[in-house]
Specification:
twelve-stranded mixed sheet
């Protein structure tokens, strides 16, 4: 299934709802999962259809992920039922109406796709050797042996997630803004001290990730052996959908591409990932609990960012990332509203150690 979060405008205001993509020969439509399930239960004679639907198939994507297999089973049943309606309806829109005559099906052109979910946490790995080697070579260093032994990662800001078609606000403190082409993996249930084989059963699905980076401030942060923090935390784009694990049972040969203003700049393949997602999850889970709704990313594929090409993003640029079976994640860069230098933010600060220390 391709799961999405979409914003719809009603007489009561704007609401973001969880949906599934219906695919017909003519065009794609989105089914409101929670509303459709409440309608289905009511049709079956359930007296508390809305209450039960809210529990089993919530209106928000994070709730669906946390509910797990029962939620997915209900969504799959609805997908099959409404796909049949879609095939019969063709270009017409005579789908059933839900409770209180609420619409259940929307044309994609009628809604705004949002980030498919808001992660409970975000960790970004560093798992493509070509990308890692390029970064170390630019610093006149070699890849440390430890990189080949453990899948390392940093913790990103899960509260700065943006979605498909969202415009990125230019961070005021950077002049070297970069994109990063990555694959994301969503955790579907909690676990701890998992083996790679066990970790496979904890994967909910996959999405695209654009791990935007402020390369100039990142350079300074990494000199202090901490971070990245301000270099990354301003925004991460994900989307356009979540493709559930059953639809992508084998991602080892998945192709990924990145275009800037329509020009192909990045090409990668998950076959080149040094660690599998199962190995990343296993490593992360040692001594700590992973939770449903957590997001991890693969790290940047080889050639997957401007740093590797010696070029940076500019205001007005459009970045389009794509992956087999998932689709396209597209974002545009806004004009900077102001400029500042973080290194000059605290003038007069100097060492408090004595010269003889």
């Amino acid at each position: 299934m391709k799961l999405v979060s979409f914003e719809v405008t009603t007489v009561l205001g704007r609401f973001v709802r969880a949906g599934v993509v219906l695919e017909s020969a003519e065009q794609n439509r989105i089914l409101d999962l929670n509303a459709a399930y409440a309608w289905q239960l009511a049709e079956e004679g359930e007296a508390k259809a809305k209450t039960l639907a809210n529990a089993i198939l919530p209106s928000q994507m994070l709730g669906i992920i946390e509910t797990g297999e029962r939620s997915l089973d209900a969504a799959l049943g609805l997908l099959e039922q409404f796909n049949s309606y879609a095939q019969a309806a063709g270009k017409r829109t005579d789908f059933p109406l839900g409770l209180n005559e609420a619409r259940l099906v929307f044309e994609i052109s009628e809604v705004v796709l949002k980030a498919p979910f808001q992660p409970a946490s975000f960790r970004d790995f560093f798992a493509f050797e070509q990308h890692v080697a390029t970064g170390y070579r630019l610093r006149n260093e070699s890849i440390p042996d430890t990189w080949y032994k453990i899948p390392v990662y940093y913790k990103g800001n899960h509260r700065s997630i943006i979605g498909p078609e969202d415009t990125l606000t230019w961070p005021s403190y950077t002049q070297k803004l970069d994109y990063e082409l990555e694959l994301g993996c969503i955790i579907g249930k909690s676990g701890r001290d998992l083996t790679p084989e066990q970790a496979k059963r904890h994967i909910f699905g996959y999405t695209l990730v654009n791990d935007f980076s402020a390369r100039d401030i990142q350079k300074h942060e990494m000199q202090c052996r901490l971070g990245p923090a301000k270099a990354k935390d301003f925004a991460t784009a994900i989307g356009p959908c979540i493709v559930t694990r059953d639809e992508l049972p084998d991602i080892t040969s998945m192709r990924l591409q990145g275009h800037i203003n329509g020009q192909l700049l990045s090409q990668g393949n998950m076959a080149d990932c040094h660690f599998s997602f199962e190995e990343m999850i296993s490593h992360w889970s040692q001594g700590e609990t992973i939770y449903a709704g957590d997001l991890i990313a693969s790290g940047t594929v080889g050639t997957g960012c401007g740093l590797e090409h010696g070029t940076w993003l500019a205001p007005g640029d459009e970045i389009t990332l794509s992956a087999d079976g998932i689709g396209e994640l597209r974002n545009r860069i806004a004009e900077p509203k102001a400029q500042m230098n973080l290194l000059d933010a605290f003038p007069g600060k100097s060492s408090k150690l004595s010269p003889t220390t």
